[in-house]
Design a protein that fits this description.
Strand content of chain B: under 5%
Radius of gyration of chain A: 33 Å
Structural class of chain A: alpha+beta
Distance between the termini of chain A: 58 Å
Radius of gyration of chain B: 17 Å
Oligomer: heterodimer
Number of strands of chain A: 14
Shape of chain B: globular
Number of helices of chain A: 11
Helix content of chain B: 55-70%
Largest sheet of chain A: 14 strands, antiparallel, barrel
Strand content of chain A: 35-45%
Largest interface: A-B, 43 and 37 residues
Number of strands of chain B: 0
Order of helices and strands of chain A: HHHHHHHHHHHEEEEEEEEEEEEEE
Amino acid sequence: MITTLVAALALASADPCAPLEPTARADPGASSAYRAVAEAEAAAGSRDTATLAYRNAAALDPADASSRAALERYCSSTGPERDPFQEGLAKMDAGDLRGATAAFRAARARSDEPSVALLEGICLYELGEDREAEPLLRMAERSPENADLARLYLGLLVLRRGAASEAAALFDAASASAAVAPVASDLARLARSEGPWAFTFTASSGYDSNVNLAPPGAPPARESDGLYAFGAMGLVRPWGSEGPYLRGQGLLNQQFRLGTFNVAGGDLAGGWQLRGDSWSALGEYDFAYRTFGGSPFVTSHRLLASASGVVAGDVTIGASYLARFESYADGFSPFSGTVQAVEARVSFPAGSRARLALAYGVARDGARLSILSYLEHGPRAELRVVTAGGLRLGVDVAATFRGYDVYDPALSAKRSDTYLDAAALVEWDLSRGWTGQVALRGRRALSDVPGFEYAKLVPMVGLAYTFSP
Amino acid sequence: MNLASLPLILALAVAGGPGGDEHLLAGAGAFRDGRFDVALVEFRVAEKLGAPEAREYAAASLVKLGRPEEAFEAFASSPPGEDGLLDWYRALACYDARLYVCARRLLSDLGRAGPKAAAEAAKLHAEIARVLAPEPAAASIDWYLARCEKHGAERRPALATAYCREAAALGSRRPDRHGVARASAELAHLDAPDASGARR
């Protein structure tokens, strides 16, 4: 019995079409069972398993001429040859990943090519069978012509188990190939953003066409100015993209000439993120402080809760709620109060490289002075595109309809405004950590009180650097 | 996922019928090494040599080889609930054969397959929920009915029954109950256990 077992294992590991060597001791009983299995497999159309079983049958019984003949027929070059590699490709293309995996495995049994190991590893990764995928991808990585794609998938694999730093290094290595560089460099950036900490510094400069929000054709005169801005943001999240986090942020927006419109400030926020396979949620507290024209302007405490989930295919829906408790400095104190806002959002793919999000928000500002309190609502759309060359494009448009609570005797009107906003951003990676940005923001404000109408355009160019593990 | 219940197979091999034990062992070894074609042959031989339990392991190998309908049929001869890991493969066979209602039922009962399998099962469950969320299309139900009739004509009653059950389950979720009467009529001609062990 043990002899038969050893023979079976030895036969199994060999090429089923290699020259046949009979076992030392014939076992016609086992041979007969192998032949019956071979015939059943042949009837089921499974050439590989039929060949294996015929081979074992013939090896265990030298007198079994029918198995020998069947084996010769299957292994004959004149017979209908099936190429498991091609079969695997066809199944992979058809989305039959499990079938493709089996076919690639059969192909490797014939010839253990790194390119086949790569494809089998990719299929297993897609099936979520990471433990089986990793050794195959490592095998493919050792082959120069497959190394970059193998590293890309190894990066995805280690990112899935939460090793963001290791994933980023693998994506960086994969970026050596021009073919995968755009995707790999994007993934490297994303992996770094998933890490336990990141510090980002930005510097930008631009032009504001209407700093004082002056109405068209009426006093005060519109004042335009150049500006420069610096920003810093630090994020610490010891458990990566799930769990607690702490964020600190500082900003300095300086006008070249009109210093009374300078803005500076800082935020300190802490929160907790939760993630499932198809959903995510977060809760956050944020403390903010701002100065305006060099003087204290406002402090606020904000509570935020948001959740989103994949509902079908690649369609995501989400909702958020925030409450911000604002306390303005003397001179602005009538604006103090509580802002509450909710937004519902749906996003979906718009082509292979773009994603479109549509949202509708409602906000209520309950200011201390009733003539400053309002309710506003409106739609918003965001389009995000990643080009083949690695450029990231963003276009946002929004309309906001604001109605104030009460009649304002000073204005002789119950104020009602409409804001039309548009923004476009182009971003690209210059090298590891460095990002270039060009942005254009525009707003048209309409009001039943002409003095509150204005239009402005703010083009900016900037540079960002991110430190991350 | 590997067939991690090698100790169980070893125990079964010791208790296996004469001649089947070493092939059961050889099949388990091949399965562990990812040689599912070899594993299938060895499990089939073990079954022929008197180890009937090898049939379910052969079914697991068929799942790995991308032959879910044959796997479903192989599982159909025994009821689920004996081994959590084999039930996971049983559910995969249903899923790969597009028998989503069948897979969902099996996954719901999957409790003893270990934490890794439980996590995988939860993922598959979510995927099935996504597939089954919209109202089933009439064309989709017709596809199941066609599979039922085809397998019925081929005298593969377990598969035919499963496809008709799936058609009936999907059709009953539509206001017009598309295909339910046709599936019921087909099922009346069939009386075979399905992979989940249920009978008509």
